């Protein structure tokens, strides 16, 4: 790793918040903000290799977001479909390995097919690992993992003695990913809204006032360099 990347995070997770307010400030419908937000994704993703970010995880839709109006939910689902159709070739060609976390059961089968296809197609890529959290909730993820673990025990393939943090983590949606080093939330809200609860046990947090559609690659780089100044102790004391 080049020296100027030393201390920068390997895995950055982002709660992309503030699309609705961004649109409201312009007197436009909320969906206008979501479209502007989607355009930012491309820019932030493109900046990752130069910044040493190997894993980028983006919160796109939470298990709680179904509480929004039917029109907004439908609009967002349509946007995800369009985004995947439009970006698939470019993602593949640019070396991005794409994964999705979250429960697919409630998603439109056509969207799920696009997700499955993109995962399969980009599985051999290794420049940047992009994970999109879609119908994702931390509690839901841990609950689904516990259910699958219980099933393995019921079937006699594991016993209760096998249950430890490492084994449970193997049943999470994120099983192949390292834990996030840094979680960024835009839009000024200082909460995690059910994002990566298990995985963020020792993550650093940055809460940024900028609304997601205004979050540039320059600001992203600035936030990462702030991270590099932090002293991560993981419960130990500094030698
Ligand atoms: C984040 O922006 C995108 C999603 C949750 C899908 P919001 O839609 O939450 O925007 P605000 O928080 O209302 O401004
Ligand atoms: C979190 O943002 C979910 C995503 C960014 C996808 P929300 O806007 O849904 O979170 P709350 O409701 O403000 O906690
Ligand atoms: Mg919000």
Keywords summarizing the entry:
binds 3-methylbut-3-enyl trihydrogen diphosphate; single chain; 239 residues; binds magnesium ion; alpha/beta; Undecaprenyl pyrophosphate synthetase
Describe the protein in words.
- By secondary structure, the chain is an alpha/beta fold.
- It contains 7 helices and 6 strands.
- The protein has one domain (11-138, 180-227): Undecaprenyl pyrophosphate synthetase, CATH 3.40.1180.
- Helices cover 42% and strands 15% of the residues.
- It has a 6-stranded parallel β-sheet with strand order 3-4-2-1-5-6, with helices on both faces.
- Strand 3, helix 4 and strand 4 (128-136) form a beta-alpha-beta unit.
- Helix 2 packs parallel to helix 3.
- The longest helix has 24 residues, at 70-93.
- The chain starts with 10 loop residues before the first strand and ends in an 11-residue tail after the last helix.
- 31% of the residues are buried.
- The structure holds 3-methylbut-3-enyl trihydrogen diphosphate (IPE) (2 copies) and magnesium ion.
- One 3-methylbut-3-enyl trihydrogen diphosphate binds at residues 16-21, 61, 65, 76, 187.
